Structure formats: C-alpha cells, structure tokens
Amino acid sequence: MRDVAIIGTGETKVGEHWDVSLRHLALEAIQAALADAGVATVDALYVGNMLAGELAGQEHLGALVADFAGLSGVEALRVEAADASGAAALRVGYMAVAGGLADIVVVVGVEKMTDALAGEIVYGRSLATDGDYESAVGGSLTAVNALLMRRYMHEYGYAQRDFAPFAVNAHRNAVHNPQAMFRFPITPERFAAAPMVCDPINLFDSAPAADGAAAVVLAPGDAARTFSAVPVRIRASAVGTDALAVHDRHHPLLLRSAALAAQRAYEQAGVTPQDIDLFELHGSFGILAALSLEAAGFAAPGQGVRMALDGEIGLTGRIPIATMGGLKARGHPAGATGVYQVVEVVHQLRGLAGENQVPNARLGMTQSLGGSGGTAITHILERME
Amino acid sequence: MNIPRNWRLQQQRYRLEGEVCEKCGARIFPARDICPECEAPAKTPLVFSGKGEVYSYTTVHTPPQGFEEFAPYILALIQLEEGPLITAQLTDVDADHVDIGMPVEMVTRKVQGGGAEGPIVYGYKFRPVLHATVHAAPHE
After folding, report:
1. What ipTM was predicted for this assembly?
2. Is A76 exposed, middle or buried (CB count within 10 Å of its CB: 0-12, 13-18, 19+)?
3. What integer best gives the mean pLDDT of chain A?
4. Which residue among A123, A199, A245 sits closest to B65, beta carbon to beta carbon?
5. Which of A32, A127, A345, B102 is the most core-located residue (most Cβ within 10 A)?
6. Does the beta-carbon distance from A144 to B85 stay under 8 Å?
7. Which residues of A269-292 are buried (b: 16+ CB within 10 A; e: fewer)?
8. CATH superfamily placement of domain A4-117+209-232
C-alpha cells in the first residue's frame, strides 16, 4: 500500500442555495479543490451523496458530475452510506490511490436538500433507518436518536439542558467560519427554549438540512510535495458497521460501528486518543456527539455529556470538536458532510483556521456516522512536516 | 404505497412472528434466518407474546411524509418479555403518562395510509397493559 496525501481542498458555503443546482454545487467545490492542488486532470472522481434520488430527482451522479465538472470520460462513481456518504467516497478514493489503481483522485461530497418540503426531507433522512421496522412505523432519523437520548438521560442521570454545550460550542465556532450556515452564537437559555422536534431532541439540538459541496484532491504521499507546499497525509482510513435499527443492537448506547472504526484507525496510524489534537465528529444531535466521544475513546460510557459540560470540547479544551461549527452550525448537507469534516481538519493542520485555529494541531481525526450509527467512517490526518 | 412490501410483512406485523435459534436459544425479532448472537442458521418460527415494557420513548412533533395525520405521536423502544427490543408507536396513552419501565402490550392498529394515500396499512402498536377487573364467581 502507498501513502496517500490530500493536496487540495474546496468547499461551497453551506446553506439554502435555491439558485444553484446539485451539479453546479459539485462543480464549484471540485474547481476550488483542483485549483488549490494545482492539477487540471484526474484519474478518477468519487461522489459522495445520500439523497439526490429522493430529494433532487437525480441518480447516476458519477457520470453527471464528471461531465459538468469538465472531467468528461474519467472514471466516476457515486458512493452511498447515508449521511456518511462523503466519508465513504473518501474511503474509496483512498483505496484507489493506496492500492496504486489511480494517482490523482478527486473526491466530492454534494447534497441538495432544501428544494424539498420539510416532510419530504424528514422522510428522506428516515431512509437511513431500517425501512421495514423503524421508518415503517413512523420513526424519523430524529425520533430514533431521541430514543437513544432519552435512554441515555435515564441511565446516566442527565437533563435535556445538559446537552446544550454541544450546540453552544458549535455555534460559537461557526461565527468565524465564512462557509458556515449559522454564523451566530447561541446561549444555553436559548437552547432550552427551542421547540421540540422529537422530545427530548429540540430544534437547537438538531443539525439543519442544507445544500453544499466539499471536495479534496488525493495523490500518492511521495508525490504530494510536488503539488502542495502543505500536504496532509491520511494516516488512517477505516469503516465499521452495526445493525441499522437501534432495536437490533446489543447495547444501544454503545456505538459499536464507531468504536470499531476508531479502533481500526488508531491501529493503522499507531496512535491513541491522547495523540489526537482535534476531532471532527458527527454531531447531528448532541446525543450522537456524546456517544461518538465515548465510542472513540475520549470519554467513558456516560461521560461524553460530562466532558462537554466541563468545557473540554472547546478550541483550547482537551479534545476540540466542531471546530468550524460542526454539523449543528456549519450545517449538515447529508452526503457532503463527511468531506466538509475532512476539509476543515486540513485547514486546521495547515494552520489556516483563522480565529478557530487549534494551537499546534498536528493530528486530526474525522468520524462520520450513517443514520444513527449503522455505519461509521474514521479518518486520521497528519500535517506532513 | 407499496402493497407487496407491506403484504410480505404480515406475519411480523399482525402476530409478532419471529424466530428462535435452535443452537443457542436466542429469541429473534424480526426474523432474519441467521442468529445475531451465534450466527447459526435460525429458521424456527416463534410467535412473541406481545408483552413488554417501555425501554425509551419520544413524542414525534415533526413527522415524516405519510405520518402527518398521527402527529404528535409517541414512538417507543419496547423490551419484549422474551428479550428483543422493538420499535413501535404507543397508543391509548398520553406522553405525560408514559415512563421507562411501563408495562405495555401489543395491539393491532392503523399505522399508515387511507384516503388518497392508498390502502390502509395495519400493524402493531403498544398500549399500557389493561388490568381486567376480576369478578368473583356467583356460586362457589
């Protein structure tokens, strides 16, 4: 296997882009990434997307995006793993370069959600749950995560307001991210006053549906310096899975997929959680942020919320998360999110995160979850010295 | 509305039919033909009692398309007395009266559909266990 490096990144602003189509969002991110990398042609394109068929009326994205991105004729495929699709596309790109099947690969995550009505979006996201036994009985993605949250509160003795620090931290960091959807701070009081979506998950505990695209360009590690002055090496790329349905898991409050993916990633990179300088986790709801911190070894079971309450997730805390706003405030364009996470970690490792710079960031980790944790995909990135 | 998709789930939907693993004894719902505990083939049918208790619950205020007429509704994880968890709506109860640990039993109710949405889909929901009044026999 070859070392793989990220030599360029690009991202659109996350938001409600009524004036831009899916293909043009992808084009914008890809062009920015290719320009950053200083390359004009690629060997392959992998597109991460969750919901284009359901919400944008478009399948067959590999060829479509390649054509409209000026890469006509190139190998191009779409990769899907619910809202971990972007990370899944990076995983495929990584395998292609690491395995020597391609040299220069562009990975783009793209999603167009906000053309659809609210009920259609809720339905679309519910397709990440078990279609015969969760969504068929009225289970939305938010609802099944609310079941996890209520049980977590019951077992560990937390109140709903104890989850506020995840949203407060995310919003505080989004203020300085020009690509973020919600660039305003919120207070714990405002969090507590938000209307319920699926009790105990309220509106300010839920990542917003959004449009957006993010892209990275990959190259073999030994060639990375010829393209980029500050390349970032992919030290680990790992996938874990679990039952889609929460009711089919042995221990619903232990995210087995995330634990497996993190453990595999630590082994590949030869590091431990203590070596990680920042962690872009999948905080689509506060409960998933807490469970991710626990599954990845940053907190003991039941202590993820305690970490947030103790201020350990801020930019200067023990393990900074959502450093550019996270899913909650940067926005959560489903299948694009996994690539946004990676782009943001690259900014941090290159020292380009501005007001949100994590001091001396050398090793960063991303973890994307599909649905309520059926899939988890973990990458560990390192600044090349 | 996809009729075959619902029709082929009738044994699960109407009588909670699952499976039991002959090798390790695990009771399995829904049927999956491979035991999730020991990975042995498991195809022996088992009809569950429909009794259980609430493991967790939520009130859905923002429903997916197709469930608007029921909102707000209570979705729950039920721990069946045979062991497995199942996701289902609670019925015949207000959220204020639901607690983790509350005994519940399965009933058959309308889950979706009707009118312009096509055929009505029936399936399992769970309600608080009814306590029948026991009358002494008139002639001992």
Report:
1. 0.96
2. buried
3. 97
4. A123
5. A345
6. no
7. bebebeebbbbbbbbbbbbbbbbb
8. Thiolase/Chalcone synthase (3.40.47.10)
Residue B137 has pLDDT above 50, yes or no: yes
Q: What are the residues whose beta carbons fall under 8 Å from the beta carbon of B131, sequence distance 6 or more?
A: none
β-strands B17-20, B27-28: how paired? antiparallel
Instruction: Return d(Cα A379, Cα A368) in angstroms, integer.
Output: 9
> In the structure, what pLDDT confidence band is assigned to residue B140 with cuts at 50, 70 and 90?
very low
pLDDT per residue over B39-56, tens digit each?
999 999 999 999 999 999
Number of A/B CB contacts below 8 angstroms equals 108
CA dihedral of residues A224, A261, A245, A284 (deg, nearest 10): -60
Q: Is A111 left (phi over 0), alpha (psi -120 to 50) or beta?
A: beta
CA distance A118 to chain B (A): 8
Q: What are phi and psi of A44, to 5 degrees?
A: -160, 155
Other Cβ atoms within 10 Å of A72 Cβ, number: 10
Q: Is the pLDDT of residue B16 over 60?
A: yes
CA-based nearest residue to A26, from A264, A214, A203: A214
Sign of CA dihedral A133, A136, A138, A144: positive
Q: Which of A126, A196, A252 faces B64 most closely, judged by CB atoms?
A: A126
Question: Please, how many CA atoms are within 13 Å of residue A316, restricted to the half-sphere of its CB?
Answer: 1
Round to the nearest angstrom and report the end-to-end CA distance of chain A. 21
Q: Are A377 and A338 in contact (CB under 8 A)?
A: yes
Q: Could you count the other beta carbons within 10 Å of the beta carbon of residue A360? A: 8
Q: Flag the least confident range among A300-309, B90-99, B110-119.
A: B110-119
> For residue A206, which of A186, A223, A221, A225 has the smallest C-alpha distance?
A186
Question: Which residue spans within chain B are E strands per DSSP?
Answer: 17-20, 27-28, 44-47, 51-60, 73-80, 85-90, 103-112, 121-128
State the average pLDDT for chain B: 92
Closest listed residue to residue A347, CA positions, set A330, A361, A333? A361
Question: Of chain A residues 86-125, which have a CB less than 8 A from chain B?
Answer: 117-120, 122-123
- The CATH number of domain A138-206+235-383, selected from 1.10.10.10, 3.40.50.2300, 3.40.605.10, 3.40.47.10: 3.40.47.10
Gap from B67 CA to chain A (nearest CA, Å): 6
Helices (H), ranges, chain A: 22-37, 52-55, 61-68, 85-98, 118-126, 141-156, 164-174, 188-193, 224-227, 256-269, 286-295, 304-309, 334-350
Q: Each residue of A163-202: b (16+ CB within 10 Å) or e?
A: bbbbbbbbbbbbebbebbbbbeebeeeebeebebbbbbbb
Pairwise CA distance, residues A284 & A142, whole Å: 9
CA distances from A215 to A44, A137, A316 (A): 13, 37, 28
Task: Residue A352: name the closest of A324, A381, A319, A310 by CA.
Answer: A324
Distance of alpha carbon B1 from alpha carbon B120, whole angstroms: 9
Tokens of B11: 């044994």
